[in-house]
Amino acid sequence: MADPATDRDIAMAGKQLGRYPRGMVAVGARCVCGRPLAVVTRPQLPDGTPFPTTCYLTSPEAVKAVSHVEADGTMKDYTELVEHDEQVHAAYERAHRLYLAFRHELAERVGDSEEHIKGTSAGGMPVRVKCLHAILAQTLVMGRGANPIGDMVLERIADEFDPTVCRCTTTLDEPGE
Ligand SMILES: [Zn+2]
Questions:
Q1: Residue 58 near residue 21, CB atoms below 8 Å
Q2: How far is the centre of ligand 1, averaged over its atoms, from the C-alpha of 32 (Å)?
Q3: Model-level pTM greater than 0.85?
Q4: What are the residues whose beta carbon lies below 5 Å from ligand 1 (ion)?
Q5: Quick check: 68 and 23 in contact, CB under 8 A?
Q6: Ligand 1 centroid to 34 CA: how many Å?
Q7: 66-71, long-range: CB within 8 Å, 24+ apart, which pairs?
Q8: Measured between alpha carbons, how far is 114 from 36 in angstroms, rounded to an integer?
Q9: DSSP 103
Q10: CA 148 to ligand 1 centroid distance, Å
Q11: Fewest 10 Å CB contacts: which of 84, 112, 145, 158?
C-alpha cells in the first residue's frame, strides 16, 4: 500500500466512523486537506472475521451525500443501467474483477485468507447495485474509470461532496489539531 495508515490516520478514521476502524491497513483516498476519505481494510479482521468491503468509505460528508442518492430512488436506475446497457454492464463487471484483484494482492501481502469471501466484491457487484457507499469508496481508492456507477455517483453528489473540495468537519481532540 502506497499510503500505510499512521496512528493519526487511524484515530481520524475512528472519529469519522464513530468506532475503531478494525483491520484498517492504509488510507486509500484522502481529501485535499489530508483527512481519509476511504480506507483499505484487510480481508480478515484481527479476530479472523472475513471482511469483503476492502475499500471502505469513512468521510462523513461523503457518506451523507451518498445516502441522499440511495434515498432518492436512483439505485433502481443504476441497476437498470447495469442490466440493460451493454457498455455499463461490461464496465461494471470489470470493476468487480478489479476489486477482487486489488483484494487478492492485499491478502497475499498481509497473509490473510480469502476463503470465505472468494468471488465476493462489494456493493452488489457484478450484477446488482446495492450499496453506493461501497461503490463510491472503490472509485475514490482506484480513481475515475474504475467503476462506471461510482463515476456517476461522484458526478451526482458533486455539490455535496467532491474529493478536491474540502468540506471536512471531523477533528481530533488533541493539541495541534
Ligand atoms: Zn478535507
A1: yes
A2: 6
A3: yes
A4: 31, 33, 35, 166, 168
A5: no
A6: 6
A7: 66/132, 66/133, 66/136, 66/153, 66/157, 66/161, 67/133, 68/157, 68/160, 69/132, 69/153, 69/156, 69/157, 70/132, 70/133
A8: 25
A9: H
A10: 24
A11: 84
Which three-class secondary structure state does DSSP give residue 24? strand
Distance between CA atoms of residues 76 and 20, nearest Å: 33
pLDDT by 10s per residue, the chain, length 177: 557 899 999 999 999 999 999 999 999 999 999 999 999 999 999 999 999 999 999 999 999 999 999 999 899 999 999 999 999 999 999 999 999 999 999 999 999 999 999 999 999 999 999 999 999 999 999 999 999 999 999 999 999 999 999 999 999 976 544
Grid cell 487478492 in the structure block, residue: 104
Q: State the cell numbers at 153.
A: 455517483
CA of 45 to the centre of ligand 1 (A): 27
Q: How far is the CA of 13 from the centre of ligand 1 (A)?
A: 12
Question: Which residue type occupies 124?
Answer: G
Cell numbers describing residue 19: 468506532
Query: Can you tell me which residue has the cell 461490461?
Result: 90
All three cell numbers of 143: 480513481
| Site of grid cell 481494510 | 41
Amino acid letter, 103: R
Neighbouring-strand partners of residue 40: 26, 55
